[in-house]
Design brief:
Layout lengths: L8 E6 L2 H11 L3 E3 L2 E4 L2 E5 L5 E3 L2 H4 L20 E3 L4 H12 L3 E7 L4 H13 L6 E3 L7 H8 L3 E2 L4 H28 L11 H17 L4 E11 L2 E7 L13 H11 L4 E13 L7 H12 L3 H14 L15 H5 L1 H8 L4 H10 L35 H16 L5 E12 L2 E12 L24 E2 L3 E8 L6 E2 H9 L8 H6 L11 H9 L6 E4 L2 E4 L1 H13 L6 H15 L5 H21 L18 H4 L4 E2 L6 E4 L3 E4 L2 H4 L4 E3 L1 E2 L2 E2 L2 H10 L6 E4 L6 E9 L2 E5 L15
Parallel strand pairs: 1-4, 1-7, 7-8
Antiparallel strand pairs: 2-3, 3-4, 5-6, 8-9, 10-11, 10-16, 11-14, 12-13, 12-15, 13-14, 17-19, 18-19, 20-21, 21-22, 22-23, 24-25, 26-27, 27-28
Length: about 725
């Protein structure tokens, strides 16, 4: 503290009690009070996350208490805040401290990011405080890092753009969520249909993938594979089609048989050998999203679980730097002190650190992860300078910490050097290819050995050499539908606004236009899985939209498809980032959001809607749909009207003629939706396969349904008969 500031009593506001206690210990503020600690000229308190939130619509305007289309859109001139009831006691403690005349300035020590800034600013605003603000910017929670950060406090005014972006994010979410949720809910008879600025486009991506899978028609194809052995090394080569020799799949059974017969019994002659030196560059460091993806792929952790573990490693164990970062780089200043971070993990990874010493240089230009231009609020996640004692971490913490340490080491090890080999064979005028590689130097792959794919090792082969074919196989395969999203693939899709991008540097360039932020993506996924929504469910590692989720996306697409657009939401995220950098005005962004909300509500009000009431019940309905509902089709037995009842789609003539025709909603262990019943009545079968369950084995299966002779039965696709060995051979 400067000499001129020694008279000041400073209030430090952290985000969690545990963080406040660590800060208080370093500041020697050791006297415990109710809701804060004090001593040595400091009072240290905490917020327990959000203490204030934007007030509900009815608190903004009493006319918005009832859900009516006539009150939409709701566009407050100024957003009122409300104190969250569960944490009201802590807010009033902070308010009293902020009003205390003995406190001359306030130090914001909440999480150093957009949400942390919002948490602090809302409390400061709701308390009516106008005292000067200083900002504590922490990248790790070690005592040394805390002391260093306090020696470099920054004026709160430097973070006004970050604060503006945080307010814009929260207020735009409120405007879109509150208005569109009310509008869609009212259109759906009062059953809650929640809409979110980011949540709904993510749900749309899940639904699009489900539809791709359900509509996918597999094609059978064949590949011809030759097996060889030389120098006790077994390897294979695959037939390639002329004239480009790029395609290996054969879609005609007769052609596959003909090629197989032509090549059977003939030797292979090496037609060409091409070797090429190559390398695999060290990977970028972890940001939160890439860490979540890796943890999901390797350990099956949900994104939320990885975030929770990383947060505990940060503020509980002080083992890693700030985890809620979107950067995969470190600054030159961090690099200058990098040796101390390696010393902290030396005892855990002695062989890796020994390898590092052989090639390490103090020249930061050698390492692509050292880039000041790619570091904004926080650098990448790396281990801190605090060594972790054996047994200090539980099993899951150890797994995540190990990934971070290994990636940290890998980024500073040399590139992996390899020799790629491509060999072409001729078997009775047909061309086969075998590819493999030999690693001449593993380099960074020593730190992440799992990154080595199943690389084929080939023996030494020379042009013109003849080899005996040990086996020649005609393999029958099928094209596969794209897989359902997992946490890992959904996080990548959110990061790139739904675009399929595998290149890590291209993906990094698109981050500003992604859906959500590293800190919020896990919560968005969990929101879709919540019981009150039931828009998606986990099936093993997969995240699959429910029938209700599919229906919600269909409704939104029918009423206002822009609400599903990942591109539009990605543009908004990019503009929030521009506000944060001072390149876009908060007022201009909010004007755009208000115009969008007004347009969307106008469209929804004018649109007509039919929806599946089995998935989204009409809470305003009071009569039996059988007596007043829409006619779905004609009864196949008596040509009467078929209408929907609470349990079935049945003939309305049953009271007059006793007709017993009905399509029961719960049939074959599955649920027949209204659209399925319409297809049965009009087409005689459903277009898509339904998920059903066997009464005998209790196992699920997929099948279409067909209507024949007034009865509904499963309809299974014809299965081609497999040929017995030798059948049809000449």
């Amino acid at each position: 503290m400067d000499e001129k500031d020694r008279w000041m009593v400073q209030l430090v506001i952290a985000e969690k009690p545990s963080v406040a206690k660590d800060i208080a210990r370093v500041l020697k503020a050791g006297t415990s009070r109710s809701g804060y600690l004090e001593g040595e000229g400091y009072i240290v308190s905490w917020t327990v996350g959000h203490l204030c939130n934007i007030a509900a619509p009815e608190e903004q305007n009493k006319d918005w208490h009832r859900w009516r289309m006539s009150t939409l859109p709701m566009l407050p001139d100024r957003f009122k805040l409300t104190i969250l009831p569960n944490t009201g006691k802590q807010f009033h403690i902070l308010k009293r401290l902020l009003k205390n005349p003995n406190i001359s300035r306030v130090i914001a020590a909440t999480d150093a990011g957009r949400e942390g800034e919002l948490i602090f600013r809302r409390v400061y605003q709701a308390a009516g405080c106008n005292k000067p603000i200083m900002r504590l910017w922490l990248s790790s929670m070690t005592d040394e890092a805390i002391r260093s950060a306090f020696s470099a406090l920054r004026p709160g005014g430097e973070f006004r753009h970050l604060a503006a972006a945080s307010y814009a994010r929260a207020e735009s979410d409120w405007l879109v969520g509150m208005n569109e949720t009310r509008a869609f809910t009212l259109k759906c008879g009062g059953e809650l249909v929640t809409i979110g600025r980011v949540q709904t486009p993510v749900l749309a991506m899940l639904v699009k993938r489900r539809r791709e899978i359900e509509n996918f028609v597999p094609r059978t194809f064949w590949e011809i594979e030759a097996l060889f052995e030389k120098q006790q090394t077994a390897f294979k080569a695959v037939w390639h089609a002329p004239p480009t020799f790029k395609e290996t799949r054969i879609f005609e059974s007769e052609q596959a048989e003909r090629i197989h017969r032509k090549c059977a019994g003939h030797p292979a002659v090496v037609d060409g050998v091409r070797q090429k030196k190559g390398m695999r560059r060290p990977p970028l460091l972890y940001d939160l999203t890439s860490l979540q993806r890796t943890c999901n792929s390797r350990f099956g952790f949900a994104a939320k679980k990885t975030l929770s573990i990383a947060q505990a490693l940060y503020d509980g164990k002080k083992a890693i730097t700030y985890p809620r970062t979107d950067s995969q780089y470190i600054s030159k200043d961090v690099f200058k002190d990098i040796a101390r971070h390696f010393v902290a993990i030396r005892d855990r990874y002695p062989e890796l650190i020994a390898r590092l010493r052989q090639t390490y240089t103090a020249d930061d230009r050698k390492y692509r992860v050292v880039n000041d231009g790619k570091v904004s609020d926080h650098h990448a996640i790396i281990p801190t300078t605090r060594a972790m004692a054996p047994g200090a971490l539980d099993r899951d913490q150890q797994s995540v910490y190990d990934l971070i340490c290994r990636r940290f080491t890998a980024a500073f090890l040399p590139a992996a050097e390899l020799l790629s080999t491509e060999v072409w064979f001729i078997i009775n005028q047909e061309k086969f290819k075998s590819s493999g590689s030999v690693f001449r130097q593993l380099g960074w792959l020593e730190a992440e050995p799992w990154a080595i794919r199943n690389d084929v090792v080939l023996p030494v082969l020379r042009q013109g050499e003849s080899l005996q074919v040990k086996e020649l196989n005609r393999l029958e395969k099928q094209t596969k539908a794209p897989p359902h999203y997992t946490d890992a693939s959904l996080l990548r899709a959110m990061e790139t606004a739904g675009r399929q991008v595998e290149d890590e540097e291209l993906a990094a360039a698109m981050k500003e236009r992604g859906l959500g932020t590293p800190a919020t993506r896990a919560a968005i996924i969990e929101a879709l899985l919540e019981k009150k929504r039931r828009y998606a469910a986990r099936q093993g590692k997969s995240i699959v939209p429910t029938d209700k989720g599919v229906e919600v996306v269909r409704i939104v697409h029918e009423l206002f498809p822009d609400a599903l657009s990942p591109d539009l939401t990605g543009e908004w995220e990019a503009k929030l980032a521009q506000i944060e950098k001072g390149r876009l005005r908060y007022a201009d962004f909010m004007q755009e959001i208000r115009a969008y909300v007004a347009t969307s509500i106008a469209h929804i009000k004018q649109a007509r809607l039919q929806y599946d009431k089995t998935l989204i019940p009409d809470k305003n309905a009071v009569s039996d749909p059988a007596s007043s509902g829409t006619v779905l089709g004609r009864c196949p037995l008596c040509s009467g009207d078929v209408k929907e009842t609470s349990k079935a789609y049945s003939c309305a003539n049953w009271q007059k003629t006793g007709c017993r025709f009905a399509i029961w909603k719960n049939s074959f262990g599955g649920r027949i939706a209204t659209r399925d019943a319409v297809e049965l009545l009009q087409e005689g079968r459903t277009k898509k396969k339904l998920t059903l369950k066997s009464n005998r084995t209790k196992k699920q299966y997929k099948a279409r349904l067909q209507l024949a002779d007034g009865k509904v039965r499963p309809l299974f696709d014809a299965v081609p008969q497999k040929r017995t060995p030798g059948q049809g051979e000449p």
